[in-house]
Amino acid sequence: MAYFNNQKEPVKNVETNVWSCVSDDCSGWMRENYSFEKEPACPICQSEMEKEVRIVPEMK
């Protein structure tokens, strides 16, 4: 499909399982399939993380 004025094709958003940091001071999160650990620690603050679902851009 052709887009004019150098506009990119819109990115599709999908519901994705993610790990989200439980700390109120941190907004860290990562896609579930990007972790090798069963229950990862936050890569930013090392706090615990919990599973949740977010709507994020689709990765191809």
From TrEMBL:
Pfam families: YdjO (PF14169). This is Cold-inducible protein YdjO. It comes from Gracilibacillus ureilyticus. The lineage of its organism: Bacteria, Bacillati, Bacillota, Bacilli, Bacillales.
